[in-house]
Amino acid sequence: xxxxxxxxxxxxxxxxxxxxxxxxxxxxxxEPDLEVVGEAGSxxxxxxxxxxxxxxxxxxxxxxxxASGVEACRNxxxxxxxxxxxxxxSFADEEALMAAILAGASGYLLKRIDxxxxxxxxxxxxxxxxxxxPDMVTKLFSALRGGGPSSDPxxxxxxxxxxxxxxxxAEGKTNREISSExxxxxxxxxxYVSNLLTKLGMSRRSEAAAYVARAAAQKPDSDREDWT
Length: 228
Hints:
Helix content: 40-55%
Number of helices: 11
Largest sheet: 6 strands, parallel
Distance between the termini: 53 Å
Order of helices and strands: EEEHEHEHEHEHEHHHHHH
Shape: elongated
Oligomer: single chain
Radius of gyration: 20 Å
């Protein structure tokens, strides 16, 4: 079927609760421009179904039984860069929100959203827009601008040394350059990098650098000297 000159938007539903998937399918299948092409109840199944069903958009729960939805999002976006991902969750978690953004999600919405707003959100994502639940954005910015050295729920997981290494990564320095600046063995720096990426739930140093840059951009000007 054609909608405004385009074919139906193909959607894959990923949630470990069958009743949630059935409810979403019932809602979406009633729309002439939306087509549910598949369902999955786990992260591993979701990745397989993306390759099999060729969806335009994946509606993905943040919490899945075999892996996090954020990890599944990262894997989907890495293997299928043209596929957009909408994270749909019951949990207002600013850590998951930022991790989802860095993983390449086009949107992050809470399941309390009403049907009309969800449909409009899917169509906007299908048009290439990005959107985040406004309440979640407010919470995230509040956390980033709050008290404490970093006031960031992810960065606060790091030790002082790991944070120094991360700041130097954000400056674009290599492990060898970091080892020279911090008077550490290059192998020690490599271990710090591996540990901090694990704590941040990231797989590449470029992701960590981007996180620092985005978080710093949200800090008031008066605080930025203390940010790095």
